[in-house]
# Entry
Amino acid sequence: MAMNKNTVLSWATWIMIFVGLGLIALGAFRYDEIAGWGFAAVGFGFFAIAWVFNALKGRV
# Structure
């Protein structure tokens, strides 16, 4: 399977979404103290980066 730039960005976008969901779930269900807010914030940061990767498809 040939991986061009758009395919790599697509895979990176999906991986970032799943990792972001995992971090938000950790923050919501595993950590009840202030660390949960940090996990959730990093999870939303992963969503923001995935959004940028998705926007870059076809442009690089």
Q: What stands out?
A: The chain has one domain: 5-56.
